[in-house]
TrEMBL record:
The protein, known as: Translation initiation factor IF-2
Keywords for this protein: Cytoplasm, GTP-binding, Initiation factor, Nucleotide-binding, Protein biosynthesis
Top-level taxonomic group: Bacteria
GTP-binding recorded as keyword: yes
Length: 623
């Protein structure tokens, strides 16, 4: 391999900006060096790239994960476009590594494989316009649930049956109202919604979140049915709602458009059947709602939590295939076997076909809303996929958690050998708390000589694998309302891992903050601890000159650092009180107004009238 040409004193093969280097999210400078070598056939030292980055004002080690922005700065300097592969693409590639190409699978499906599935509907709209109430009203209209006599539970989605053109048909509702859930899932690449019901209160009209919801649905290419709610209210003006919405491209059928508007009162259960009809009509008109039920299930986790008795429970929405009890599944980084399934009425379910939401038990941990799930032939495959994803996530997390330090600070810190980091692993009972804690922790202001790194965070008990990670990277484990399982506890004790439990975010923050401060290398300042005036000089051939002094202030202690001052000028510095005597006795200290004999070792240049000042280094308190 050839030697690379010099670039600012560093050997890096420079590009002309035309070529693109693809890197996985979580990639490091070493990975970039590898790619550059392959691309240019020059040998590229990661160290050279570290230096180049350093000159650009960014500091990183060769193996540390970098974020996209940092890579782009470096790429620009080197003359290459650097592209970070999206998590979705990466996950697709990861699954392909296991022989699972889900897109191909869908393409290969024949018309004859496909069967009609119910539409999946999300209710969106401005706050207080009645989304929750409407979801309740629709659920109550569900005769089947009533007959089953089950207790309706919130699992994140439910199905209702309605008679349409003389046929009983199902509709699936995502019952987390609001477009946050919708956007969050879409941001993660999961499109679960086929159709949106836009709720607009007839007494209030179009409001900011109405427009926002509308935009989200339109951007996702999801057809909209408008529920004009609260028509029972005085001052309700359903016609005005229709008219306002025309400005946003939603023209009511009665005005010659193709959007169905239904007047409803969620409060009085008025118009619910008509709304369900409109949903089915709109779905049938514009959507091809078919899926193959005869294969391993694929879908999306729409809600998940840690249940005290049942462990991780996740509501999954089947998108294709059929999910059965006993199937090996992987959802995000969680894996396991479906131990049991329940529907929204708390009824046990043996199998779930496309568009069916079911609550699944048996996962190793809690997946996130929007995580895709799939069934694998073997348990082992599910576990391996989960583990690979976990590794990818950990890398990405590392890149995110890295706190930057400025170039000047880094130079100084580097010179003084002060770069240090506090590594943390956070586990909690709910993802909201974990995220809040993580965010607050990263906001703690400390000296730049200390980095705070969050290596991993997640929902659920502290596991052996958390402890393993802590062992490797010397991390502290924080359990927020969670405890380690038995194995993890044993492992932590054996490895001497610090595991701390909190139930209040503030106390966790307090502790971390003080340990961060404790880790800061102390800064010292000089404090004068004593001053003695030389009244006599005793010359001794054996001990050198001894100063006969009287202590004027403070205390002179043996071994203290000292300097000699003559007429206000330092004539001897970096000295020490090597011997200290009162009369014939060696003493350790002499206080103000007492006389003493001081020997300054080999320093003999002392005169009557000189002052000996002693200095102590005192640790400066941190603000
Ligand atoms: P969300 O914020 O969109 O979920 O709105 P909610 O479903 O919580 O409803 C907000 C308020 O409007 C509540 O006090 C409901 O009782 C009330 N509400 C909802 N639907 C109707 C309706 O059809 N008529 C009347 N009069 N009030 C309603």
């Amino acid at each position: 391999m050839r030697e690379a040409p010099q670039l600012g004193g560093v050997s890096i093969p420079r590009g002309d900006g035309s070529r693109t280097i693809r890197l996985r999210r979580g990639a490091s400078i070493s990975d970039l060096a590898d790619k550059l070598e392959t691309l240019t056939n020059f040998s590229v030292q990661p160290g050279a790239l570290v230096t180049a980055l350093f000159h650009l004002g960014e500091m990183a080690t060769a193996t540390e994960s970098l974020d996209e922005a940092t890579f782009q700065i470096l790429g620009e300097e080197l003359g290459y476009k650097i592209q970070i592969v999206s998590p979705e693409d990466e996950d697709k590639e990861l699954l392909e590594g296991f022989g699972l190409d889900l897109e191909q699978e869908l393409e290969d499906e024949d018309d004859s494989d496909l069967e009609i599935r119910p539409p999946v509907v999300t209710v969106m709209g401005h706050v207080d316009h009645g989304k929750t109430k409407l979801l309740d009203a629709i659920r109550k209209a569900n005769v089947v649930a009533g007959e089953a006599g089950g207790i309706t539970q919130h699992i994140g989605a439910y199905q209702v049956w309605t008679e349409h053109d003389g046929i009983e048909r199902a509709i699936t509702f995502i019952d987390t109202p609001g477009h946050e859930a919708f956007t969050a899932m879409r941001a993660r690449g999961a499109q679960v919604t086929d159709l949106a019901i836009l709720v607009v209160a007839a007494d209030d009209g179009i409001m900011p979140q109405t427009v926002e919801a509308l935009n989200h649905a339109q951007a996702a290419g999801v057809p909209i049915v408008v529920a004009v709610n609260k028509v029972d209210k005085e001052g309700a003006n359903p016609a005005k709602v229709r008219q306002q919405l025309t400005e946003f491209g939603l023209v009511a059928e009665e005005y010659g458009g193709d959007t169905m508007f239904v007047d409803v009162s969620a409060l009085n259960n008025v118009g619910i059947d008509e709304l369900l009809d409109a949903v089915l009509l709109t779905a049938d008109a514009g959507l091809d709602l078919r899926a193959n039920p005869n294969k391993d299930a694929r879908g999306v986790a729409i809600e998940a939590k840690l249940d005290k008795g049942r462990g991780a429970v996740a509501t999954v929405l089947i998108q294709s295939g059929t999910l059965r009890v006993g199937d090996a599944i992987v959802a995000g980084t969680a894996y396991g076997r479906v131990r049991a399934m329940h529907d929204e009425n708390g009824e046990a379910v043996e199998e779930a076909a496309p568009s069916r939401p079911v609550q699944v038990q048996g996962l190793s941990s809690v997946p996130r809303a929007g995580d895709t799930f799939l069934v694998t032939e073997e348990d082992r495959t599910a576990r391996q996929i989960a583990e690979k994803r976990e590794a990818v996530e950990r890398n990405a997390q590392l890149a995110k958690a890295r706190k930057r330090i400025s170039l000047e600070d880094f130079t100084r810190a580097l010179e003084e050998g002060k770069v240090d980091s506090l590594n943390l692993i956070i586990k909690g009972d709910v993802s909201g708390a974990v995220e809040a804690l993580e965010e607050s922790l990263l906001k703690i202001e400390v000296d730049d000589s200390v980095q705070l790194r969050i290596l991993h965070r997640g929902v659920g008990a502290i596991t052996e694998s958390d402890i393993d990670l802590a062992t490797i990277d010397n991390a502290i484990v924080i359990g927020f309302n969670v405890r380690p399982d038995v194995k993890a506890r044993e492992r932590a004790a054996r490895e001497g891992i610090d595991v701390r439990f909190y139930s209040v975010i503030y106390s966790a923050l307090d502790d971390i903050e003080s340990s961060l401060k404790g880790m800061l290398k102390p800064e010292y300042e000089e404090v004068q601890s004593g001053v003695a005036e030389i009244r006599e000089v005793f010359r001794s051939s054996k001990f050198g000159n001894i100063a006969g002094v009287i202590v004027r202030s403070g205390t002179i202690t043996r071994n203290a650092k000292a300097r000699v001052i003559r007429d206000g000028v330092v004539v001897g510095d970096n000295l020490a009180i090597e011997s200290l005597r009162r009369f014939k006795d060696d003493v350790t200290e002499v206080k103000t107004d007492f006389e003493a004999g001081i020997g300054l070792g080999r320093f003999n240049d002392i005169q009557i009238g000189d002052e000996i000042e002693t200095i102590e280094l005192v640790e400066k308190p941190r603000g």
